[in-house]
Write a structure and sequence with these properties.
Chains A, B: One of its GO terms (molecular function) is pyridoxal phosphate binding. Two copies of one chain form a homodimer. Chain A has 502 residues and is an alpha/beta fold. In chain A, a hairpin with a 5-residue loop joins strand 3 and strand 4. Chains A and B meet through helix 3, helix 5, helix 6, helix 7 and strand 5 of A and helix 3, helix 5, helix 6, helix 7 and strand 5 of B.
Chain lengths: 502, 502
């Protein structure tokens, strides 16, 4: 990896292949021609422009208006998406920020990407928007083709089927439902065994045996969504969970690695072995046996917590040993940001996970699976009216094409290595402000801890960068896949300014 | 109402105001000019065309292909949405069916409605598709305006705020979350009282007091979704619930009315009084006290079960008396089909429900509320990455405009009365086949029971109509809002053919 950095970053695209901003955007972006920052985005801003405090007067006025009908207390900044372009988010006061938060890691190929404009204007997209089908009952004649040329083209190895959903939470919850149905079917003796009268009656009363006494095992500091089943597996922060009834499901400790990794090899290996032992103990002993274990490749809301490929291989082994399914939650890590299309591609698993869930950068959601037994034994068991959104599936297909056309996964790997190396240098210079740097070799999915994290994030805006946090202390970097060395330099400069300004 | 029918139905629109099919569609629809069936849709098919068995050979081929990657066992029919228009759904074999199922009641203003085509092609829509925001953090500068000119313009009386979601299940579940947070806040002594350490710690372990020991009360045979919290309140069929862990939440009997209503006045009044008494008993005695009661105006999946306005006024009274919230689930009944924009407009409630949830015909989802205390006391408690989809909110705005432009709610009221009267006549002629006719004065939201229901639905396709069922025996009619007297006549003719064909 070091050799790539030594060789210097080169634009992946020739200038002639650059993406041109639509003319309406070019007028608003006040582009000068002296330096081309993006090798993809012709007409992208050359750097941040901060004209006012954020929120500025125009934003404040709009926020006040919005708050009368919509809770704005979690508002970070107001955006004008008609003016945002590429890596830059623009607000109503004309502030132009380099966006390395990207709608909580949900923008893959840049604001107003012209290829996506084209896809959104296509007759196929228009048709999907206005004739939304109940997919389980009335799929369109070309739904197989939309899946095969899009979502399934990037299916993780070994998983050739998909259940489409709406967002991360229901992607995970439908995967849980599949796990529970699979497990009970196995216990019952196979798909041909009919439900008993007792099961059918008790299910209607939310009682066992019809409502199963099973669980999903998740990890402490993990995040898997905020609906009732997914929230029962989310263990990030009290504010996410307070007052909401929850299932009595088990949680295992996620290994808490110490950094730099090379200085804590034995300690970290022990932390991972202990965590696996705890998983095995819970599988064997929890009063509601786990049908599945769900895990994020990198705990993305809970503080950017990493574990080694060996840990995940161990988890695959433990789950297989005990007939428990392994669900990999790639809602935030999926679609290229870690330098692989799926973060679990880094693990070199002997056998694939049983299910992989996705959302965010896919702009649609669902879960992949391979085992035909994960299709429930009868229809209408895994079903809902919409079962996803073909319009969003069509958009994901265009995103995949854009990623392939520009080798954007390779790009994040390279730019991530560059960025990581430069933050390592910052960490040497300012050790207090760049603690526990993590994400080496994980593309641009990089984080570090800062003791004054919330101030750090607030200050970042003054220096022209939109950055997010995770957990209590982490600064999490979530650039888009079109983030290049030149953007990294702007980010690095801004981060150094932040920590030297206090 | 009788006078309207006596006066005869007149097209609401002059011919000059008719919606013209796009030229591409006009070519494929094989329209003759002899009779104009739709007064809105110029170029709509004049009637069903059944060319093959359904599925025909082309459909079968596509279904086989689709099944390799997507579970097709719940497939009803494959559709070609590029060729479907107005009230008619077209399949790949060229069969053209009058669609009174309408994607499980989710198509409001017709397939390929030209006004929606225009909205879908607008720069605003394109922008929303490709720049999807994390709405809670980074709303667009004009989000207030999108809400106010769309979703909020049709807000139920007394409810001026909205939380946007993705589909019916999470619309209900986020409403439940709001109810739990509201109830615990009241118990705690108001929004300013901080969470205790014990609450915060126990919440992380899914234990009380942090995870509340509260419930949502729902009704037997009700349907509120299929994720873990919503499924715990769904009581429609075992197949929806089997094997899935559930909360031990209470259910009250939904009054089982006898038809014709005028012959069972006292009996039905007693059934409703008993149901209300049961609700009150459960509120006072269930071991997990209900924070809210959720109810559908018409139980739409569980068999098209109706109750009187007096029952719902009684429910409002009981819930208010005990400080329990009343959530009206208008996911299927909302947006015009009952002859009012919201079905609960029929009830003449003394005070509005606390929350009203919506989805389906709105093409987006969420819940309305009025009480500012239903905004949790801190940000990030009711939050997720996307919090709905602005593209779908923009589409809903266009749907609302179309409904207003053509007085479509008035249309469903009138056409519904006509249709109901005609089915009453059929019921006199064929009493075995049109039992328990219900939905009088409820627009086109009409149902009846048929002892061979599944055969009835299968045969309907042979006679050119796509109809759905609900519960075990009900034939449920869910035409679009653009369904007119002429379409009703086609439906009536087909239904008579079905029951005289066996």
């Amino acid at each position: 990896m070091a050799s790539l950095r030594a060789a210097g970053m080169r634009p992946i695209l020739a200038a002639s292949k650059r993406i041109a901003a639509p003319s309406t955007l070019r007028q608003t972006l006040a582009v000068s021609s002296s330096r081309m920052v993006s090798s993809y985005y012709q007409g992208e801003a050359q750097g941040p422009v901060v004209k006012t405090d954020i929120p500025g007067p125009k934003s404040q006025e709009a926020i006040t208006k919005l708050d009368t009908v919509f809770d704005t207390r979690s508002l970070n900044m107001l955006a004008d998406y008609t003016k945002s372009f590429g890596n830059y988010i623009v607000d109503p006061d004309g502030n132009t920020l380099l966006d390395v938060y990207a709608q909580i890691a949900s923008i893959p190929v840049g604001y107003n990407n012209p290829a996506l404009v084209k896809a959104a204007q296509s007759p196929e997209m228009v048709n999907s928007i206005i004739n939304r089908p109940a997919l389980g009952n009335f799929p369109s004649h070309d739904w197989a083709s939309v899946l095969e040329t899009g979502i399934l083209k990037v299916a993780p190895k070994g998983l050739n089927q998909v259940f489409t959903a709406m967002a991360g939470s229901d992607a995970n919850e439908t995967a849980y439902k599949a796990a529970f149905m699979w497990r009970r079917q196995k216990e019952r003796g196979g798909p041909a065994v009919e439900f008993t009268e007792e099961e059918m009656e008790s299910a209607m009363n939310n009682q066992s045996p019809g409502a199963s006494q099973l669980s999903i095992l998740s990890f402490k500091t993990g995040f898997h969504g905020r609906l009732f089943g997914s929230l029962s597996t989310t263990r990030s922060k009290p504010i996410h969970k307070l007052d909401i009834p929850a299932f009595d499901w088990p949680q295992a400790t996620f290994p808490q690695l110490k950094y730099p990794l090379e200085e804590h090899v034995e300690e970290n290996a022990k932390a991972e072995a202990d965590a696996l032992a705890e998983v095995e103990h819970l599988i064997k002993n929890w009063h509601l046996p786990p049908a599945a274990v769900i895990v994020e490749p990198i705990q993305s809301e809970g503080g950017d917590n990493h574990a080694s490929p060996a840990f995940f291989r161990g988890l695959r082994e433990v789950t297989q040993k005990h007939g428990v399914l392994m669900i990999v939650d790639e809602v935030q890590t999926g679609v290229g940001a870690t330098g692989k299309f799926w973060a679990h591609d880094h693990w070199d698993l002997p056998t694939p996970p049983d299910m992989v869930t996705f959302s965010k950068k896919a702009q649609t959601a669902g879960y992949y699976f391979g085992n035909p037994e994960l299709r429930p034994n009868k229809p209408y068991r895994q079903f809902n009216t919409w079962m996803g959104d073909p319009a969003r599936a069509i958009l994901f297909r265009a995103i995949i094409e854009e990623i392939e056309r520009h080798n954007l996964v390779e790009n994040t790997a390279k730019v991530g290595d560059y960025l990581f190396g430069k933050i390592e240098e910052l960490a040497k210079k300012y050790p207090q402000d760049f603690q526990n740097l993590r994400g080496k070799g994980q593309g641009t999915f990089i984080a570090f801890d800062n003791p004054k994290r919330d101030q750090f994030l607030a200050k970042a805006k003054k220096f022209g960068v939109n950055i997010g946090g995770s957990g209590a202390h982490a600064v999490r970097l979530r650039p888009m896949l079109i983030f290049e060395k030149s953007h990294a330099d702007i980010l690095l400069e801004a981060m150094e300014k932040i920590v030297t300004s206090w």
